[in-house]
Amino acid sequence: MGSIKIGNWLNFTGYLRHLGPGIIMASTAIGVSHLVQSTRAGADFGYLLIPLIILINLIKYPFIVVGYHYPQQRQVSLVSGYLSLGKAYLYVFLSIMLLAAIGGIVIVVWVMAAILQNLLSLPLSTPLYAASITIFSIFVLYRGHYQILELFIKSLTVIFVISTLIAFIALAANGLEIFNAAYYPIDKLTNFQSLAFIIALMGWMPAPLEISVWYSLWGEAKKRSQKTQRDFTKELFDFKLGYCLIIMTATIFAIMGAESIYGKEQDLASSAANFASQFINLYSLALGDNLIIKWLITLAALMVMLSTVITLIDAYPRSLASGSNLLKYQNHQHHRKLYHLIMIFCSAIALFILAFCQAYFKFLIDLVTIIAILSTPFFAYMNLRLSKQLAGKAKKNHLIHLISLILLTTISLFFIIMLVFY
Fold this sequence. Notes:
- There is one protein chain.
- By secondary structure, this protein is mostly helical.
- It has 16 helices and no strands.
- The radius of gyration is 21 Å and the shape is globular.
């Protein structure tokens, strides 16, 4: 009996040791797309968009899970898979990554800097906060590589998820308006601005599809750091746990927005600094408005945004370095040098924009949104092509992939029509 308990414990700890890429994936998605977009969905539409949030997460799942299945069966990342489809695919992938990298890093650092300003209230400008955050992130990644990235993100995510669940339970204890018809404003769906937001929400939710590539690259990095044989059964648990966290937190943020803001004549702020303050107050009121809880929630929001900043500063350069290395060197040593150079380059450009081009922030957000939505069918198609190379259950999902691809392409076409005609 004792040996069975020890065996179960060892098996459980084995699963815990293999947690990593899935949790990092979750922390990347929880950042701006959940923290901002899900909360805004609840604040503006009540409970109306929650089924849509869950649905779009499920529609994108077949393509994102290719980031697990492809390395499992082919022993290479999705970047190598894209190269196998033809160099043209890899060049397009790298072009999208380069455009998205600058804008993505700017946006998350900007929001993070606003939360840090709210926490510390020091007489420092946003660019100075942003520079401090970026330099800290680069230092963590440069010195610690993947091991520190994983340890850091897992710790931050655990703290944030616990505080989020506490806030949600406290809110739910007072009763939810889930059966209140007033919280389902169907008439808003005929409004152009509402439709534009819904399409943008679907584009960002749970994250751009390149997150499937990042997951496969983080899996490779974890293998190199551990220098052991990969256990794909435990890695699948890691992936599914991360994706469940993504759906759970997106739903909770939407409910928080609906219960705390919707119908109360209080609009969400458009600026990052004001939104950060409003978000913290939202959580504080749910848990009981006192100073200790406000600091706890501020710290939790700070942690989740810091994890998103670090993961994006890692993910984009890692993707660009991997693709560039495959095209020219195919050598791990060159990959590491490229990774560091690209990370510093992208971060420097982002800081330059933060310091001197703040007037173009709205344009930058729109640009990143457009890239995310329009590139979705491209990534979905490539992942569909790669899934055909797989065997077993991964290949049996072909019809689901096809249906999901049609739905995602339809969303992108609607977005193009709105850009052209409105």
